Amino acid sequence: MGMNMTGQTAGRHEAAGPWILRAGGLHGDPGDRSAPSPGRLRRAVFVGCSVLALGLGGLGQAAGQSVSTSGDVDPLGATSPTWTISRQLTIGNSGSGSMTIAGGGRVSSSDGLLGFYDGSAGTATVTGAGSTWTNAGELIVGILGSGALTISGGATVANTMGSLGLYTGSTGAVTVTGAGSTWTNSGELVVGWSGTSTLAVGNGGAVASGKGSIGYDNDVTGTVTVHGAGSTWSASAIDLGVFGAGVLTIAEGGKVSVGTGGSGIVTLASYAAGTGTVNIGAVAGSPAVAAGTLAAAELRFGNGTGTLNFNHTDGAYVFAPKVSGHGTIEQRAGTTILTGDSSGFAGQTTVSGGKLVVNGALGGTLSLASGGVLGGSGTVGGLTVKAGGTVAPGNSLGTLNVSGHVGFAAGSRYQVEINPAGQGDRIVADGTAVLSGGTVDVVKAPGTYLPGTRYTILTAAGGVTGTFASFGQAGLFISLGLSYDTNNVYLDLARNQASFASVGATRNQAVAATAAEALGRGHVLYDALVQLTRADAARAAFDQLSGEIHASARTALVEDSRFLREAAINRLRAAFGAAGATRAPVAVYAADGPVSAAASTERFAVWGQAFGSWGRWSGDGNAARLNRSTGGFLIGADGSVLDIWRLGIVAGYSRTDFAVRERGAAGSSDNYHAGLYGGTQWGQLALRAGAAYTWHDIATSRSVALPGLVDNLKGGYKAGSAQVFGELGYGITLAQTPIGILAIEPFANLAYVSLSTAAFAEKPDAVALVSSGAASGLTFTTLGLHGATGFMLGSVSARARGTLGWRHAFGDTVPAARLAFAGGTPFGITGVPIARNAAVVEAGLDFNLTPAATLGFTYGGQFGSGLIDQTAKANFNVRF
C-alpha cells in the first residue's frame, strides 16, 4: 500500500511500474513502501518509470504500462486530485519517463522539465477537459535529451517561458490539438534554442505567448505549423530564424496573431546567419492547400535569408501586412492580393504560379516566370515578364504603376481589358520599357466599339524600346492594331477594308448589308454591325434586318386568292350539274319564305361556304421557309338570267397568319372579299368566269438582336388584290360502272391576280424599315379533269368526286419588296417564291343521309417544288 511522505524534502524514486495519483494519495506498485505521500514535494525525480495523474471518470496511462484496479489501488474519489510539487517536475531525467494527466487531473510544479540528460526521453500528455499542468516557472521540452508534450481534448498547460530544444543535440516537440486545448506562455516562447524543435497547433488548438523565437542558434531548425479552422497562435512579436533556421506555416484556416489586434511585427532572419520562412498554405514543393491568416502590421526581412511563400488554393486571399527589408517573396499557387504599403521592400518577388494582385505598393524587383500572373492597380518596383508570364493590370480595368523599368521577353503575355468608352488596362513606368516580343491579348467588355478609338496600354517615362510580337486581332469589320511613339504603346481600333456586303452569303443579306453600311458611322445600326466578329453572326443580323417578311407575305396573299375563285367556279359547276361539283343544297325564296333546294335549282339561290387551309413554302437559299394558315367563310347569291346564264355575287371574310421563324418574323392579314361571277352551258361545253377584289389589313412584327441593339419592330399597312378568272369545261357522261354512273369534265382554268401594297413605316425608328409600296401580277393556268360517280353504301346514296390538275404560274413568281432604313438608301429584297408548277388535287365524298339531309367532306391540296398547301372542308345540309 502507499506510504505517506508528508514533509519529505526530496524524493528519488526508481520503480518498474507506474506511479499513480489517486484521490487518496500517490502510489507506486502495490506492495512498494517507498511511495511518497500526496502532499507537497519540494522536488520529485522519477527514474525509469511513468507517472499517471488520475481524475474523475477514468485512469490515464502512458508508455504502454498497465494499471490494475486490484490490490491496494483505491477507487477514484469524488473530486479530481491535485498533485503539487514545490520545485521542479522532471520527466525523463536520465532515462525514459512519461506522465499522463487525464480526466480532469491537475498537476502543479515550479518548473517542468522533459528529457533532462543526454540520451533521456521525457513525454508528457495532458488530455481531456479540466486536465491541467501549471508551472509557476518555465517549461522546457528537451534540455539535453528529447522531450515531447501533447495537449489535447480541451486540456491546458501554463508556464512563464516556454523552451523547446534547449541545448545542442536536444529535440523538443509540442502538439496542441483539439478545440479548447491551450498552451499559455506568459513569457517568451522559443522553438529551437539550440536543438531542432517543432510546434504543431491544429484542429482548433491555441497557443499564447510573449515574443516567439523560432530557430535561435546557428545550425538549428525550429518549425511551427498552425493549421485548421480555429487553430491560433497569439504572440507579441515573432522572430523567425534569429541565427538558425525558422519556419512558420499557416494553413487551412489557421491564424497567427502578432501584437494587440495584429499590430505586431514578424521578423525573418534577423542576423546574417539566420534563415526565416513564412509559408501561407503549403511549404514550397508540396501540393497547395488552403491558406491561413497572418494578422500583423509588418513582416520585416532582416540581414539573413528570408522568404515569404504563398502556396495556397484560395481564389482571393488578402495579405494585409506591409513587407519591408531585403528578402524573397514567392508566389506559387492561388490568388494572393497584397493590400499593404510594401514600398519599403527591397528584395526579389517571383511569381511562378497562380496570380499575384498588387493593390497596395510592393518595392524591389518583380519577375514573372512561366505560369505566373500579375494583376492589380497598385505600384510595383522593376518588372520583368519572362516567357510564359502574364501581366493583367487592374482588378478589371485598371492601371499598374511601375516605379522602375519594365521588360517583356519573347513568349511573355500582356493581357489588356478594354471597354467601349475608350477605357482600358495600362502600365505606367517611371523608367524604360524594353519590349523583346511578347503577345498582347485583348479582352473586350460587352458593348459597341467604334473605329478610330485609341487605347494607351503602356507608358514609359524613360522611353519605349522594341515592340511586342506581331499583333493583329482582326474582326470582320474592325481590326485591332498596335502603334508606338517615343514613350507610349497604343491599341487602335480601325475599320478594315471588308464591306458589310462582302460577308453576306445571299442576295437579301448583301443588299441589306449595303444599305446598313451606307448609314455610316454614328448611326446605331452601323455601329452595332461594325463590331461583329463572326461571319455567321453577321449573316444572321443581315437576315433579321432585311425585312424579308414583307416580301414573303405577298406569296401567302396571292396564293390565298384561289379560295374565292374556287368557291365561285364550284358554285357555277354545281348550278349546272357539272361533274365533280359539290351538291350542297342552296336557299331559295318561296311564297312562304326561304326554303332549301338542290344546288342545280334554276331559282334565285343563296349559298355559303367555310374553308380552312394550312401550308408552307420552303426556302430557296435566299429567303427562308414561310408557314401560313388561313380560315374564313364566303356567302354568295345567284340567279338565272336570259334562261341560259347564271350570274351572282360573293362576299366574305378570312384571316391569314404567316411566319418566317428563321428570321424571327410573323404577321397576319384580315381579308375582306367581294366579287362577281357568272356562267353558262352550251350543251356539254361550260363557261364560268368572275372577278373579285380583296382588301387586306396587314400587321407584322419582327425581332432584331445585335450587340447593344435589341428591338421588336411593328408594321401595319393596307393592301389590295384584284383578280379575274375563267374556266372552260366539257362534260362527259360515261357508261354505267360497278359503282354507279361515271361523269368527267376536262377543264382549262385561267386566272390573273394583281397585288398592291401601300406605303408604310415600321415602329420604333432605330432600325425600322419604310416602304413606298409595291405592285405585282401573276397569271395561273390550270389544266385538269373533274370527275364524279354515284354509288350506294348500304342503304345510303353516296357520291365520290375529285379533281386532278396541273397548275402553272408565270409573271412575278418571286415576290419582291422595296424597303429602306429610315433616312437610308432603298434596297430590294425578295421573299419565298410561288411554285411555278404544282399538282392540284381534290377529293370529296357526299352522303345523302335522308331525302332532306346531306353530309359532305372535301380535301384539297397543291403540291409543288417547295410547296405543300392543304385544305379541308366539311358541310352538313338539311332541307326543310
From TrEMBL:
SMART domains: Autotransporter. GO terms for cellular component: outer membrane. InterPro entries: Autotransporte_beta, Autotransporte_beta_dom_sf, OM_autotransptr_brl_dom, Pectin_lyase_fold/virulence, T5SS_PEPC_rpt. Gene3D superfamilies: Autotransporter beta-domain. Residues 599-880 form the Autotransporter domain. Pfam families: Autotransporter (PF03797). Signal peptide: none annotated. This is Autotransporter outer membrane beta-barrel domain-containing protein.
